[in-house]
């Protein structure tokens, strides 16, 4: 089914008066209130705010996807607002926020909600989308634009609906210092290792960094009175500009494809006790699926 088939022109505002994302959310909620939809609007707004407090739904590329799974609604609501001048909220890529896509769904609905969110974000990633949106003056033109983009909502929840598209990567000739800095900056426990063509070569984790400092860790475990002549972490710091990723990264990693069913990958992650699966297409890295994202997006919402 096409994503465009889920949209209603009466729930699209092509010229938001709001100056912030919060004001835009309230302006969009007023649309369904005007329709006479009987909702506990205070509860809905509270759910949206609670989701924003956990993590901002500003996606980048000029888009934000505020959403809430709440028993205050009985069906999926999709509301889209376009700000011609841009909203004043901070964004992850410093591109002004122009499109606010508000999703409301009952707690019992996960698949359609996630696929809709995935479809809208896929639309946002398409080249030139933001410029086209800003020139639209009619809700039906927006629906046609999304229809022409041929964004589909699958029958089943797929990896592409949940995976992270922006993957932090390093290359074999990067240093240990760069790896540590990236892990700290993005709060990650592992990084993908790729070549110049984007082919996935391996993975380097925080465990690999610690093992580099403690090559005799087995001896240390077997004999807790084992004495070291030097402080291992201090020695590692002295060499952090000289140790290369090529010396540390591992080639034992799990992969999947964007069009694999999420239940299959989730089952494999449990069976093999892995926390991350890299998503590839023709050997090139296109995303990553983390176990915590399955919890965060599907279970928590």
Question: What would you note in describing this structure?
Answer:
It is built from eleven helices and twelve strands. With 301 residues, it is of the alpha/beta class. The protein folds into two domains: 3-154, 3-Layer(aba) Sandwich (Mannitol-specific EII, Chain A); 169-300, CBS-domain. Strands 1, 2, 3, 4, 5 and 6 form a six-stranded mixed beta sheet that branches. The protein has a three-stranded mixed beta sheet with strand order 7-8-9. A three-stranded mixed beta sheet has the order 10-11-12. Helix 10 (262-272) links the parallel strand 10 (255-256) and strand 11. 31% of the residues are buried.
Which properties best describe this structure?
301 residues, alpha/beta, Mannitol-specific EII, Chain A, CBS-domain, six-stranded mixed β-sheet, three-stranded mixed β-sheet, 11 helices, 12 strands
């Amino acid at each position: 089914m096409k994503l465009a088939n889920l949209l209603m022109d009466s729930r699209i505002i092509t010229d938001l008066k709001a100056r912030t994302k919060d004001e835009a959310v309230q302006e969009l909620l007023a649309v369904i209130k005007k329709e006479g939809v009987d909702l506990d609007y205070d509860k809905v707004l509270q759910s949206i705010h609670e989701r924003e407090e956990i993590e901002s739904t500003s996606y980048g590329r000029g888009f934000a996807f505020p959403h809430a799974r709440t028993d205050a609604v009985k069906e999926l609501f999709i509301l889209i607002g376009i700000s011609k001048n841009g909203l004043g909220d901070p964004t992850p890529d410093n591109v002004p926020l122009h499109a606010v896509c508000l999703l409301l769904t009952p707690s019992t609905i996960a698949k359609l909600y996630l696929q809709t969110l995935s479809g809208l974000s896929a639309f946002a990633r398409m080249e030139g989308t933001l410029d086209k949106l800003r020139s639209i003056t009619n809700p039906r033109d927006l629906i046609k634009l999304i229809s022409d983009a041929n964004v589909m909502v699958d029958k089943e929840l797929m990896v592409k609906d949940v995976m992270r598209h922006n993957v932090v990567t390093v290359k074999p000739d990067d240093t240990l210092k760069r790896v540590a800095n990236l892990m700290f900056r993005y709060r990650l426990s592992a990084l993908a290792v790729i070549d110049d063509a984007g082919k996935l070569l391996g993975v380097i984790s925080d465990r690999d960094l610690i093992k580099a400092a403690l090559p005799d860790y087995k001896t240390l475990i077997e004999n807790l009175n084992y004495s070291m002549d030097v402080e291992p972490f201090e020695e590692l710091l002295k060499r952090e500009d000289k140790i290369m990723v090529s010396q540390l990264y591992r080639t034992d990693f799990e992969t999947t494809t964007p069009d694999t069913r999420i239940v299959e990958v989730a089952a494999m992650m449990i069976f093999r006790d892995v926390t991350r699966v890299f998503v590839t297409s023709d050997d090139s890295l296109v995303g990553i699926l983390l176990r915590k994202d399955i919890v965060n997006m599907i279970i928590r919402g």
